[in-house]
Amino acid sequence: MAVGKLMKLSVPQMQHAIGIAATQVTGLREMFGSDTKSFHPGRAAQNGLLAAVLAQQDYTSSLTALEAKRGWANCVSTRNDLDGLFLTLGKTWETEANAFKPFPCGIVCHPAIDACIQLREDLVAAGIKPETLPQIIKKIDLQVHHLVIELTSKRTPKDGLEAKFSVFHGCAVGLLYGKAGPAQYADEIVRNTDVIAIRDKVQASVSDSLDADQCKLTVSLENSAGNLGLFSIPCVSVVLTKNIRWQECVRKAH
Predict the structure, then answer these.
(1) Is the pLDDT of residue 239 over 60?
(2) Does the reported pTM lie above 0.85?
(3) Three-state DSSP string of 140-184
(4) Are residues 49 and 111 in the same domain?
(5) Which of 4, 148, 239, 249 gives a 20 to 30 Å CA spacing to 214?
(6) Nearest CA-CA partner of 177 in 162, 199, 195, 152
(7) Are 29 and 151 in contact (CB under 8 A)?
């Protein structure tokens, strides 16, 4: 704050400066949907590089920085099992579990997006044109795991960055376009009136019977002539795998 005062930051700039400083302690979920979300891994990598360079030059620190009473583990958690973690050191490599994400957004949104894409295909098969959906959709009922609401509940995203943490936007583009790639997270798509019209009709609720990779979807349609009926996807499960098909990667890029 002292530096911010000297730099004569505006009130919003000072607020952002405080947030950027605060999140460097561990990384905060509150930053989801902002530039600082992407700052987290970059800063962590930078800190790791700096630490190694300093140590190489005999710069000292505590030799028990992780496990000490006032060390890292006890400061960031009330419970920890460092002994258990160290048993897998050099044996378990988390990078081997890395996978491609089918959609460029919060991973917990993926089942809902897949469900909307599948339902769109059903609507097209029934002779309903996707471009009419903003007018004829009456209601979208989405049941999800609690993490979807906790992590991706931005109801009115203002740009593509925020939309990546909006299950409502993911559902809207899945229904309207049948895909949710980088192009569907562009700022102009987020502000598209048809996307907003569908997004505003999504009602998401938590179901304790669903896992994080599952959702249930029901869409009610109605035109000027009356009720067109209900279209449902009973349950969709999405399993990420490092062996995702190349065609899926190509589709994501387009």
Answers:
(1) no
(2) no
(3) EEEEECHHHHHHCECCCCCCHHHHCCEHHHHHHHHHHHCCCCHHH
(4) no
(5) 249
(6) 195
(7) yes
| Cβ pair 158, 209 in contact under 8 A | no
More confident of the two residues 127 and 248 = 127
Question: CA-to-CA distance for 4 and 8, rounded, in angstroms?
Answer: 6
132 and 46 within one domain: no
- Which residue segment(s) compose the domain that 215 sits in? 107-253
Query: Do 139 and 207 share a domain, yes or no?
Result: yes
CB-based contact 190:157 (threshold 8 Å): yes
The answer on 58 and 121 residing in a single domain is no
Which residue in 169, 167, 148 sits closest to 158, CA to CA? 169
pLDDT in tens, 112-133: 999 999 999 999 999 999 999 9
The C-alpha angle 21, 24, 25, rounded to 5 degrees, equals 110
What confidence score (pLDDT) does residue 100 get?
A: 78
- Name every residue whose Cβ is closer than 8 Å to that of residue 3 and which is 6 or more positions away in sequence: 17
